[in-house]
Amino acid sequence: MLIDNQEKTDLLKLFCEVRRETEDFTRLLKIEDYIPQPVIFASPAKWHLAHTTWFFENFILKTFYSGYKEFDEDFAFLFNSYYKQAGKMLFRADRGNMTRPSVDEVYAYRAYVDRHIEELLKESFLPDLEELIVLGLNHEQQHQELLKTDVKYLLGHNPIFPSILEDNLVQSNGELPSWKSINEGVYEIGYAQNVESNSDFCFDNEQGRHKVYIHDFEIRNELVTNAEYIEFMEDGGYERPELWLDEGWTWCEENSIKSPLYWHKKKDSWWHFTFSGFCQLPLNEILCHVSYYEAEAFARWKGYRLPTEFEWEVAADSISWGKRWEWTNSAYLPYPKYKIAEGAIGEYNGKFMINQMTLRGASCATSKNHSRKTYRNFFHPHYQWQFSGIRLVK
Amino acid sequence: MLIDNQEKTDLLKLFCEVRRETEDFTRLLKIEDYIPQPVIFASPAKWHLAHTTWFFENFILKTFYSGYKEFDEDFAFLFNSYYKQAGKMLFRADRGNMTRPSVDEVYAYRAYVDRHIEELLKESFLPDLEELIVLGLNHEQQHQELLKTDVKYLLGHNPIFPSILEDNLVQSNGELPSWKSINEGVYEIGYAQNVESNSDFCFDNEQGRHKVYIHDFEIRNELVTNAEYIEFMEDGGYERPELWLDEGWTWCEENSIKSPLYWHKKKDSWWHFTFSGFCQLPLNEILCHVSYYEAEAFARWKGYRLPTEFEWEVAADSISWGKRWEWTNSAYLPYPKYKIAEGAIGEYNGKFMINQMTLRGASCATSKNHSRKTYRNFFHPHYQWQFSGIRLVK
Amino acid sequence: MLIDNQEKTDLLKLFCEVRRETEDFTRLLKIEDYIPQPVIFASPAKWHLAHTTWFFENFILKTFYSGYKEFDEDFAFLFNSYYKQAGKMLFRADRGNMTRPSVDEVYAYRAYVDRHIEELLKESFLPDLEELIVLGLNHEQQHQELLKTDVKYLLGHNPIFPSILEDNLVQSNGELPSWKSINEGVYEIGYAQNVESNSDFCFDNEQGRHKVYIHDFEIRNELVTNAEYIEFMEDGGYERPELWLDEGWTWCEENSIKSPLYWHKKKDSWWHFTFSGFCQLPLNEILCHVSYYEAEAFARWKGYRLPTEFEWEVAADSISWGKRWEWTNSAYLPYPKYKIAEGAIGEYNGKFMINQMTLRGASCATSKNHSRKTYRNFFHPHYQWQFSGIRLVK
Amino acid sequence: MLIDNQEKTDLLKLFCEVRRETEDFTRLLKIEDYIPQPVIFASPAKWHLAHTTWFFENFILKTFYSGYKEFDEDFAFLFNSYYKQAGKMLFRADRGNMTRPSVDEVYAYRAYVDRHIEELLKESFLPDLEELIVLGLNHEQQHQELLKTDVKYLLGHNPIFPSILEDNLVQSNGELPSWKSINEGVYEIGYAQNVESNSDFCFDNEQGRHKVYIHDFEIRNELVTNAEYIEFMEDGGYERPELWLDEGWTWCEENSIKSPLYWHKKKDSWWHFTFSGFCQLPLNEILCHVSYYEAEAFARWKGYRLPTEFEWEVAADSISWGKRWEWTNSAYLPYPKYKIAEGAIGEYNGKFMINQMTLRGASCATSKNHSRKTYRNFFHPHYQWQFSGIRLVK
Questions:
Q1: Nearest to C164 by CA among C15, C307, C26, C62
Q2: Is C296 on the interface with B (CB under 8 A)?
Q3: Per-residue b/e over B185-221, b at no fewer than 16 CB within 10 Å?
Q4: The whole model's pTM is what?
Q5: B 253-292 residues with CB below 8 A of A?
Q6: Distance of CA A225 to CAs A170, A173, A174, A231, A388, Å?
Q7: What residues of chain A lie within 8 A of the CB of D158, using their CB?
Q8: Long-range pairs for A272-279 at CB < 8 Å and ≥24 separation?
Q9: Alpha-carbon span B252 to B256, nearest angstrom
Q10: Chain C closest CA to B187's CA: distance in Å?
Q11: pLDDT 10s per residue in chain D (394 long)?
Q12: Inter-chain residue contact C96 with B36, CB threshold 8 Å
């Protein structure tokens, strides 16, 4: 059952494309920008470049490329993220202090691993290798998104607000919000190969298609805009504890949260940081950079609620989505038939299923082929640094 | 629609019983034991005595007892727990430093409020008052349980392990574990007055009866015993990261967790602290004082999993339960039709619906009438100080 | 060289007096007040009672009383403060959670140890035992002072400000401040038995009489009053970083320090907490409860400075002192000929000679026989909870 | 009283030299190495380059250069270190996250300010300007030393131990230690222009020459070597609390300190990190990278003590020094006649005179003209990252 030639050609092409996309973004940076880790949940750009490469070297080349010689034996330690079964790793908070290997050396590492993967893909091989290559590419695409949000965090906390590219804002269409009704009943949830036209890959956490019972609900077609959120703020949204979850209120108080991330008030009007620098906040743009706590408080204030991830998935074909991640009111937990893979790869998703909330949809930073209705993104409820917005349900 | 005489008599009787039960336990303590708050999530016994009384004074007497004179106007500040809409409150971490009012004064406060409630219940009144009294009593019963677990925490961290009463251990019946099968289908979840024979009260978080779809599963009739857990420990349970959620592993490392709470190894055998002091661990006793992290790791090691709270509720009539709280694999989140009450009372449950896991069942410290299959208990996944054990599902 | 009878009688009398003085104060408390440790640098009253007793049991009875049977073998662990060479000890922050042994048991412990010491003092003995008894009594007197300041801290942080006794305020005499001149030259510093009339005991840190060179200076006879300090506050004392040591300014900012400890502004006038409860601040009273940082900033604002501990000692016979501890501008460091005693007793003073500032004088809480001009008190520069005031030098 | 031409030429030459010396070191680094701040007490290389330049721009060009136009108006905020009277400043812990301005821009800033200073020095001017230039240069030389120790800290915590230059070790001469005796008496302490041949500059904290009384002492001519320190370690130095100050012992325990900084044990022999990378520890080299706590414990173990800073200054002409900073047993406090300058410059030294210990001598990283016997260096007692060693006294 060897992989046929057409499939090999396609895979090689995909490999080259995805790897190049990562560098297309990092080439916008100065060497200085590759280094810091401004906060423990973010990682340096250099680290993202190296870690995604380590994934291919560690899980593929070391196993499948006979006689493979590691680029540098220290890298296994330096660029492992959290795979405990793959050996020891650098303490996470130290990522920003590793000035060496240099940026040039990391690009050389990428080129070295790419060359070997390309050679490997020219040989005959079985589906298990293809599967790992595809996983490695999807892994890299997830890091492309984190890379962008991490760089935005770094530059957005620099008092001189550097600009690195022309940022495309996401305008709402300006129409009045409309609501879609979904009927009560039993629905199927989770990835199913035949119904998902645009992707024949999914992560383990989407698998195990199963039934859920959904009650009648109405879901808003349009995401919440900046203008709507400003109404909430002007109505004392951040000063009224009764609107907030208890931990959300504490989070606001302890961190002096008074607005979405990157927003600054300047002489009575709101400005925000984008990749194009510091600019006035477009009121009709879709809101983003809010935490789950803010999303939940906003919905409560508005008299509505957030959808569960199951409601969202059932409604996905009826609503507009794909420009901003959307907080759901579901905790990130395993599906009934969830199976953890053997070995270090099994640490990919399963071990994070606690204290996080699921997000559905996709954002401007998401790879196109990750934009599928069964994709389960997840973050702790206090994080604002993703492009996360609000969908309402009643 | 005034409350009739029989109902009034019953309510008064219930009120006296519940209030006395609290003091039956606290009278076992020395004055010294009423004071400290050894850890922020626990509260002093004196505080529990006063806070449950404050609930009646603040939410009932101030509203319904015409001309009521507060026992002491400082108490509104000192003994409010977390009701932001009921005014300012003492910083939580300071509860253990309030040596005054003295224990005697707090008992006098209880007697004063009790006398006024009793007078009130002799008058004519409407169901809204009855409802609040019943809520206040259920509130007090929840605090009776916390009181016991908090006192156990205090004494169990004293190196001389004081004994205060004869503790009744919960023996497993010694039979081999048996499994019950539950069939796939749509089930109803949540409190329904007519089907719950032993209680006509429920908390707001149990309401909103609704449908869920359950897949086939088998659930073990017996809870996990100490002996079974020791097998896990002896098989390296606390040294194998692949068995743990990532945050669970970190929690073990940062807190040097190597066993359930109150367990100590003494010359090759396990001992534990109970209300009767320090004694050898009975191997056939039902395990308790484990965190969600430990419960989840144990289940994974055993090749099984924890039930969801919905599976648990559906299976409840088929299995033995009621002696130990059981961690479920469900996050504590609102039911689809959940409504938050108006005013400060609305802060009772709803604002805690984040980052906590649901427990089902009941423990040796639970009031009998809280022992119902729809009751939703909830704690953060790292807490061990409740009487929390493990139920397995496959 | 046995101790003669008169000396024995005197020693026994002194022993009984000092031990009784401790209890004279603690008998003012309710049981509840004996328990908490509101902050890590303070200790519970019960702990002080027991620890001072442990000192006699551990360093004297166990060595000198043949066949002595410990009152309770756990107490060596529970009530050792910081003598590492005397064995393991309870973690300091846990002192407030030890509700057992109860207060009654601790009084019984005191009585038991007292009886044994008294028996011992009726026998024949050598000066080494007398020396340790005297050290134990001076140790107890130091704890009497800490006991008072720790109880004041506990009650002064209770929002209802309990009163336990009639507090005697320390009035300044209302006269204009006068200055004494001291001439440049070589002076002798440190304890000398013959020149100290009121005490034939001193601590090891006062010993090693030696020469210092002092330059001309003038020292103010009167300590700073509350009224003077309010001037400083009203002149923006707490808002002007240029008046402060860098760590002092940070300390103010991080702890929101805006006044001396226990001061509260109530409708434009200043109130403070005393052992007699909450009362209006007497403007002519001598200021106390300021940190070194505040003392230093005040002096700078006033255009003066604090004395060194050597200047203070040289001037001591020319100025009024004894009612409030006075911060000096000297770090607490060993005298040139300082010798640390062998064994656990050597840990008494020497190991604290870093990061602390010396205070000279005495306060209302100090034992009379500790009120000598060579006595070196010492605390970290941010502590306000001692009765510490300000002396000026120019 | 204008500065004459020869003096102007000399000053200009000195200015160019000192400024170039800074860059001679930083040019050894890769761009990546300029960025991180691995620990709050260290600063990024880029920051040192910019801050020393800011000093000239802010305190000199803005005042003396008529019509001066700031290079970039954001830099006043970004590169102020701690001068509160010079305006707001970046939060210290954020220095490592400022990737922009880039390294190139900072070099351009240096060139811009240098050009303006050079122009200024070609004009006629008064001694006050010269004084500030000299202060700015001495300030820059202090930062040259910090720059080296901060870079060493950064690279020495990188697991791959990068090498940037040929490091010159400081060998002891291998002879047996010899002791010099100093006689009791009154000595003069502090900077005096005529007696200091190699420098006509000193910092404010050295000024106010005054008398001290010194008792007889003997001081060792040679500093302690690595071999001697290893003896201490092998004798259980880090496991015996009786050798340590209490805070020193806690510091060891909390930070798992088991050796000087940069030492690592590898198969029974000691290695350390230097600017030339990771190499075996030369046993006869002079010990460095110890904290005051370690220095004090070592001296106690050896049966000696550390010198006071006054003893050191009196003995300085009789002993070999200049290769390693030496911890003294004196707290960093003002001399009797110490005067703080007016304005922001007054914040240079005075506000740090608390909780720090004085070091005397000089190290391999010290500018030659800072190597004078009255120079007072100072650090907190737990810092190891300076080139700090041990001198013994008996």
A1: C26
A2: no
A3: eebebbbeeeebeebebbbbbbbbbbbbbbeebebbb
A4: 0.95
A5: 292
A6: 10, 10, 10, 10, 12
A7: 97-100
A8: A273/A152, A273/A155, A273/A156, A273/A161, A274/A167, A274/A169, A275/A152, A275/A155, A275/A163, A275/A164, A275/A165, A275/A166, A275/A167, A276/A163, A276/A165, A276/A166, A276/A167, A277/A161, A277/A162, A277/A163, A278/A161
A9: 5
A10: 48
A11: 788 899 999 999 999 999 999 999 999 999 999 999 999 999 999 999 999 999 999 999 999 999 999 999 999 999 999 898 988 888 999 999 999 999 999 999 999 999 999 999 998 888 999 999 999 999 999 999 999 999 999 999 999 999 998 776 666 666 788 999 999 999 999 998 765 445 589 999 999 999 999 999 999 999 999 999 999 999 999 999 999 999 999 999 999 999 999 999 999 999 999 999 999 999 999 999 999 999 999 999 999 999 999 999 999 999 999 999 999 999 999 999 898 888 888 888 889 999 999 999 999 999 998 999 999 999 999 999 999 999 999 9
A12: yes
B124-133: Cβ within 8 A, 24+ apart:
B124/B2, B124/B3, B125/B2, B125/B3, B125/B64, B126/B1, B126/B2, B126/B3, B127/B1, B127/B3, B129/B3, B129/B60, B129/B64, B130/B3, B130/B7, B130/B11, B132/B59, B132/B60, B132/B64, B133/B11, B133/B15, B133/B56, B133/B60
Residue whose token pair is 């648990």: B312
Query: Which residues are registered as beta bridge partners of B185?
Result: B214
| Cα A43 from Cα A54, distance rounded (Å) | 15
The CA distance from A185 to B186, in Å, is 10
Query: Which tokens is A123 given?
Result: 């040989």
Buried b (16+ CB within 10 A) or exposed e, C60-83: bbeebbeeeeebeeebbebbbbeb
Q: Which of D28, D35, D46, D164 to mutate to test the interface with A (most CBs of A within 10 A)?
A: D35
Q: Which chain B residue has its CA at the smallest distance from A185's CA? A: B211
Q: At what angle do helices B45-56 and B127-156 cross, to 10 degrees?
A: 170
Of the candidates B241, B252, B391, the one whose C-alpha atom is nearest the C-alpha of residue B330 is B391
Within 8 A of A74 by CB-CB distance, chain D residues are 159-160
* D211 contact partners, CB below 8 Å, separation of at least 6: C213, C215, D186, D187, D188, D189
- Nearest C-alpha in C relative to B73: C160
* SS3 annotation, A181-249: EECCEEEEECCCHHHCCCCCCCCHHHCCCEEEEECCEEEECCCCEHHHHHHHHHCCHHHCHHHCCHHHH
Angle between helices D292-302 and D246-255 (to 10 degrees): 120
What are the backbone angles phi and psi of residue A118, rounded to the nearest 5°? -60, -45
Nearest C-alpha of chain D: how many angstroms from C246?
A: 5
Decide if A97 and D159 are in contact by the 8 Å CB cutoff. Answer: no
Among the listed residues A165, A168, A152, the one whose alpha carbon sits nearest the alpha carbon of residue A33: A152
**ipTM, 2 decimals?**
0.95
What's the gap in Å between the CA of A89 and the closest CA on chain D? Answer: 11
Measured CA to CA, the distance from residue C284 to residue C275 in angstroms comes to 19
Rounded Cα–Cα distance for residues C27 and C22 (Å): 9
Residue C355 forms contact with D (CB below 8 Å): yes
Residue C37 burial (10 A CB sphere; 0-12, 13-18, 19+): buried
Nearest to C99 by CA among B31, B163, B25: B31
Query: Which chains does B contact via 3+ CB–CB distances below 8 A?
Result: A, C
